[in-house]
Specification:
heterodimer, A: mainly beta, 7-stranded mixed beta sheet, 4-stranded antiparallel beta sheet, globular, B: mainly beta
Chain lengths: ~110, ~120
């Protein structure tokens, strides 16, 4: 069974631009979560989608948004990029949304804003 | 506030020696605890989880973790470290969030360095 796939792996953007990241979850998984990883802040929760509905959102500005499609694939969009948005963005999928369920992560998209 | 703490930024171990990576948690209700490992420029790989039952949980690559309710700890262990175990390790807890849903909260991570 294929793992979580994130594309692209690397991105370089300039300030003010927008970017869209893609995540294909493990087949059969309906929950997709996004995390931002930076050296200073560690792993921070962005948002979670389940069956095309955003369930939760972390403490990030409205420039960060996402969506989930009927096939469970998810996209994350960041508008008006800032230098501080440079990070590794990780997507994780789970087959349920229960507390006892582990999440499986993709390899991430490394975003560099210059 | 619900949280996870990894008190050590780095752990150094000689190959062949046992290793321990520490994790403590603070949650209301039952804890659902996880360990993940991250290799350079890669995503997180699931190692093991504690839900309920036996306090010693066995996971991937020979790792195990010991749950201690009284000390609110969930330390990751391995009897004999390998150089290839060198990586960044994250402890996490899944906690209820708004709207009746839940999210994973991660510790800051511990870098494990295994020396030949």
């Amino acid at each position: 069974k294929a793992g979580v796939t994130q594309t692209p792996r690397y991105l370089i953007k300039t300030r003010g631009q927008q970017v869209t990241l893609s995540c294909s979850p493990i087949s059969g998984h309906r929950s997709v979560s996004w995390y931002q990883q930076t050296p200073g802040q560690g792993l921070q929760f962005l948002f979670e989608y389940f069956s095309e509905t955003q369930r939760n959102k972390g403490n990030f500005p409205g420039r960060f948004s996402g969506r989930q499609f009927s096939n469970s694939r998810s996209e994350m969009n960041v508008s008006t990029l800032e230098l501080g948005d440079s990070a590794l963005y990780l997507c994780a999928s789970s087959w349920t949304d229960r507390l006892n369920t582990e999440a499986f992560f993709g390899q991430g998209t490394r975003l560099t804003v210059v | 506030a619900q949280s996870v703490a990894q008190p050590e930024d780095q752990v150094n171990v000689a190959e062949g020696n046992p290793l321990t990576v520490k994790c403590t948690y603070s949650v209301s209700g039952n804890p659902y605890l996880f360990w993940y490992v991250q290799y350079p420029n890669r995503g997180l790989q699931f190692l093991l989880k504690y839900i309920t039952g036996d306090n010693l949980v066995k996971g991937s690559y020979g790792f195990e973790a010991e749950f201690n309710k009284s000390q609110t700890s969930f330390h990751l262990k391995k009897p004999s470290a390998l150089v290839s175990d060198s990586a960044l390790y994250f402890c996490a807890v899944r906690v209820p969030f708004s709207g009746g849903y839940n999210k994973l909260i991660f510790g800051a991570g511990t870098r494990l360095a295994v020396h030949p």
